[in-house]
Amino acid sequence: MEVKIMADIKDKIAKLLALAESPNEAEAKAALLKARELMAKNKLTPEECKEQKNQKLVKDFTDIQCTAMTNPWAASLSAVIADNYCCRAISRKRKGYKTATVGFIGLEDDFEICKKIFLYAYNCIVSTCKREIERNPWDDRGTYRKAVNAYGWGFCEGLRDAFEAQKEEHQEWGLVMVTPQAVVEEADGLGKPRAIGRNEVDMDTLGARQKGYRDGLKFDPNSRLEGRPERAQLASCR
């Protein structure tokens, strides 16, 4: 009898978590709150309750490459986004080469969303730098590159803080934003990812860094990406 009762509870929680996929934010939030209440009361985790689709684990790389000199922030950007979209960031570097290729590990649906958001954010950074950071022929060699990297690092920090603000505002979303154990185990099996470049503050490029931070806070892929509402929305910290 107790087994049947627990099965019914798990089924109810699974349905609530499915309802949390609703594009209606109020409906989704109410469902998540009720699901969290039932899970806490019965000491259950989301993975024990959610209806699992038969999704394969995807480990693949993007076309984005980075080096410690040119765009080291790209690796940090991939990690920030992956950590908040149920994936893990990875990189591939051939022996003897300075260039690393950015990639992700995740279940099919999560992987596609994570990859799209990363590419959109990366392109936003690159296009903003080309448009708004001037290349002065009289500057010392490397000054422009430092300004671009300062903007990129700032953007990553702003984006990270935006995610933290989102988590504080919508704590119930954490129930469906947990990285699946299979993804964690696969990523851990590859070892700890190597850092690419150093995130150093340069007073000469502080303005570019601060602008990057502000833009990272405001980054919002809603208008460009399709996916579940709670995965596409970022807190707007203006």
UniProtKB/TrEMBL annotation:
Q: Where is the composition biased (Basic and acidic residues)?
A: 212-231
Q: Which residues form the DUF7168 domain?
A: 66-186
Coiled-coil regions listed in the entry? none
Location of region: Disordered = 212-238
Domain DUF2786, first and last residues per copy: 9-45
Superkingdom of the source species: Bacteria
Xref: InterPro entries: DUF2786, DUF7168
Alphabetical list of Pfam families matching this protein: DUF2786 (PF10979), DUF7168 (PF23771)
Q: What is this protein called?
A: Uncharacterized protein
Taxonomic lineage from the root: Bacteria, Bacillati, Bacillota, Clostridia, Eubacteriales
